[in-house]
Structures are given as C-alpha cells and as structure tokens.
Specification:
It is built from 18 helices and no strands. It has helices at about 10-20, 25, 30-35, 40-65, 70-80, 80-115, 120-135, 140-145, 145-165, 180-190, 190-195, 200-205, 215-240, 250-255, 270-300, 305-320, 325-330, 335-370.
Length: about 375
C-alpha cells in the first residue's frame, strides 16, 4: 500500500456509500418487498443500522493495527505464513464479487442499454477501463466518490418531485399489516449487500484521521440505507407491492415513468449514467483491494500485475454465472444469503482473531516490563 495516500473522513464515507448502494439498486427490491410489502423501506433502514454496527467493529479492529494494510495487519498478529493465508482469503472475496458486478453490468447493458451487443465485448471494455484506473492506484478511484455521491443525492432529491404524479396513494397499506416479523425477515435478505462493508479493511488504513473512523463509517452505512430506503419506497408508491417482485429491474422501470411536460423523454438515462459511475467505482475498488492484498501476501513490489490477474479471473468467472433471470431469482434466497455472509463472516472473524491476538500480545509485553 502506498503510505503517502491519505483520504479525508468525508471522502471515505462517500466511497463507502457509493460502493454499498449501487448493486442493491438493481436487486434489493424483489426479496424485500415480497416479504415486508409496505414495510420494505423500514427493513432497509434496519439493515443499515446492523451494517453500521458491523462497520464500527471493523473500525475498532483496524485501529489495533495502526494504519497497516489488511495483509500487513494479519501478518503482524499471526505471523508471515498464517497472515499471508488470511490475506489470500481476503483477496479472493473481492475477485468473486468483481465477477458478479461485471456480470450485472453486462446483463444490464446487453438487455437495456445496448440490445444485441455481445456480452463478452461489453465486459472486456469495462474491464480495460477499470484496469487503467486501478493501475494508477487507489486515489483516483476514491476521488470519483464525491461527484458520484453528489449526483446520487441530487437524483434522490429530484425523484419524488418528477414522479409525484405517478404515486398511487390509494394502494398504500399499514406498515405493520403483517406484523413485525416480516420486517425483520426482509432485513435479513439484504444482509449480503450490506455485509460488503467488510471491504473497508482496505479503506480504513487510508484515513488521514483514523480515530474518526466510527463517525464516518456510521455515516456511510446509514447514507446507503437512506438512499436504498427512498428508492424502495418510491418503487412501492409507483408500482405497488406486487409488480416489483415480477420485474427484472424495478428501479429502471420506475425511472421510465418520468416525463416532463410530455415533451422531455428518456430522462432515465441521466440516472443510469450516475448508476454506472458508482458501479465503476465499486468494481475498481474491489479489483484494487484484491490486487493489493495479493501483492502483500505474495511479497510483490507492485500491484499492477496482480491487478491484471484479478481482472482476468473476474472476466473468466463471468462466463460461469447464469443469465439475469436466474441472478434476480437468486437474490434474497437462503443460498444467496449463506454464500455471501459466509465469505463476509469468515473475513470478519479472521481479522477479529488477529486483532485480539495482537492486543493480548501487547498486554503481555506491558505486563512483562511493568
């Protein structure tokens, strides 16, 4: 890791918000609305609270290692070999997620933006642009977060105004019509998306003021929850609680309802561009995290060659994933939940053990000199 790179707390929170909310904008609606109906937005906010708590734990773990990278931290606590294994485990997760993100963009592009375009071509073009960004280090990646977040917040402010004519208030039901349990069940289905907060193990060491990690982590996680909760609520108001569960991309279908004075059409493309910028940021950040971890674990001098390998693996993996309909159907299923949270939980547990080992060692050292 380049120790000269430091980012502000605000930029850290913006990066966290951008990479956490972008994929759920496509896939979170169906499982959450199906379970909680009009309480779906509340389920998303509840998930944000849990994600914030997990982020605070990760912040505490990172503070024990004094701005070391993920692999450096694991090695300082567990030794060179065991720490290297932890680093490789940490590197494999973003490779896997990067391949899913590439597949998501590919499916959306070939079905919505550029119908008929070969999927592999769209994937390779995006991968090459991401590789160029990653080769230049993490700083240009996170610098994209502020403009992306500003545009995202602006879009969130505009959406209720331009869609208010499409709201159907007569179909609104009480939030707790089915009781409290569906709200909690729906929040569990969002765990794989919010669980990606474990990737801040790459971001926290970059903070210029590490002790502010708790404040900015909570801000980033709850910012994500607020954005998603608003989009879910607007989707309910426009499409109701049934139709979104049967659509591939409910949020995009909502955007297609926008029409200003019946003259200005296709405004949804403005929002799609914002979404694509955050998807690019997420993909670049994950590729950088994987390549940095692999660089440290293997003792290499530069992250550039690992970045090429990481992207090549991610592109290769995209050919193994099913089409968009099975992907959408899988979101929120027990298999989806277990697969993702197992990865995330393993990473969190490994670094928690490393932090506790390091802390116990420091206490013994103090006691020995006391």
């Amino acid at each position: 890791m380049n120790q000269r790179i430091r980012i502000s707390g605000g930029l850290y929170a913006a990066t966290l918000t951008c990479y956490l909310h972008t994929v759920p904008l496509l896939f979170v609606h169906a499982p959450v609305i199906e379970k909680a109906r009009w309480g779906a937005w509340l389920s998303v906010l509840l998930s944000g609270v849990v994600s914030s708590l997990v982020g605070l734990l990760i912040g505490w773990i990172c503070l024990q290692f004094k701005q070391q990278s993920a692999v450096q931290a694991a090695r300082s606590a567990l030794g060179r070999f065991a720490g290297g294994i932890v680093g490789l485990v940490y590197a494999l997760y973003p490779v896997w997620v990067a391949s899913l993100v590439l597949r998501d963009v590919q499916e959306f592009a070939t079905l919505i933006l550029l119908p008929g375009t070969p999927g592999l071509f769209a994937t390779l073009v995006l991968a090459l642009v991401v590789l160029y960004a990653v080769w230049n280090g993490v700083e240009p990646i996170v610098r994209l977060a502020f403009p992306s977040l500003v545009l995202t917040v602006g879009a969130c402010l505009i959406l209720p105004v331009v869609l208010v004519r499409e709201f159907s208030l007569l179909q609104v039901e009480p939030i707790f019509l089915r009781g409290y349990l569906p709200i909690f069940e729906a929040s569990v289905s969002t765990a794989p998306f919010f669980g990606e907060i474990v990737m801040i193990f790459t971001l926290v060491p970059l903070l210029s003021r590490p002790k502010e990690v708790y404040r900015w982590t909570a801000a980033g996680a709850m910012g994500t929850a607020l954005i998603l909760a608003e989009v879910v609520l607007i989707t309910l108001l426009v499409l109701g609680p049934i139709l979104p569960t049967r659509l591939l991309f409910p949020s995009y279908d909502v955007l297609q309802q926008i029409s200003l004075a019946e003259i200005i059409e296709r405004i949804e493309m403005f929002f799609v561009i914002i979404w694509l910028s955050t998807m690019f940021l997420k993909l670049a950040l994950y590729v950088y995290a994987a390549s940095e971890a692999a660089t440290d674990a293997l003792g290499l001098k530069s992250h550039r060659l690992p970045a090429v390998v990481v992207l090549a693996l991610a592109v290769a993996l995209t050919r193994t994933w099913p089409g968009v309909i099975p992907l959408v159907a899988e979101a929120g299923t027990p298999e989806h939940l277990v697969t993702h949270t197992s990865w995330q939980g393993t990473i969190l547990l490994l670094f928690l053990i490393a932090a506790l080992v390091l802390r116990a060692r420091a206490k013994r050292r103090v006691a020995a000199h006391g």
